[in-house]
Amino acid sequence: MKQQIIQLLDNLQVKYRWLNHPAVYTVADLNNLPDNIKPIKNLLVQEEGGGQKFLMVMAGDKRLDQKVIKQYLKNKRLRFASDDSLMETLGATSGSVSIFSFLNEGSKDVRVIVDQEILKDDEVGFHPNENTATVFFASKNLESILQKMGCDYTIIKLY
Q: CA 142 to CA 153: how far, in whole Å?
């Protein structure tokens, strides 16, 4: 996966930095890392009954506002995806999910919902489908990366 991510970023001429670090499993674990990292949450949710899946990309220190999501998705009932669904859909385990999971073939039908607030930061960082590294790049490049991976995405205010 590392080579796929590097090739993707190089093809888009996106400058990035790759930070290897001890494994992190929660947003709180990132507080112990160097570089004053601003954590990002990547939450895979799906409609009850096995329907549409959505990857919510948002600031790690914020809570997902269920009312906003229900309004945006027209009152669909959502639940967090199971560990099996994470692996099958995104090829990642809990704590390792990120936008780079869309390099996995199972992700084709997942819609991405990005909170507009993270685009205000100069830099964003995502795990490369493993929780022992983070790839940082300018937030202005997020849309071109999502487009290149063929993601169906929307940018809205989540909270």
A: 11
Ordered structural domains, the chain, with CATH: 2-156 (3.90.960.10)
Read off the amino acid at residue 81. A
Residue 70 in tokens:
């229900």
Contact, 5 vs 103, CB < 8 A?
A: yes
Cα–Cα distance for residue pair 41/124, rounded to 1 Å: 11
Q: Please enumerate, as own/partner, the contacts of 42-46 that have beta carbons within 8 Å and a separation of 24 or more.
A: 42/97, 42/98, 42/99, 42/101, 42/126, 42/127, 43/80, 43/97, 44/80, 44/81, 44/85, 44/86, 44/89, 44/90, 44/97, 44/110, 45/78, 45/79, 45/80, 45/81, 46/78, 46/79, 46/81, 46/85
50-98 tens-digit pLDDT: 788 999 999 988 888 878 888 888 867 888 899 999 999 999 998 899 9
Which pTM was predicted?
A: 0.90
Strands 110-115 and 53-59: parallel
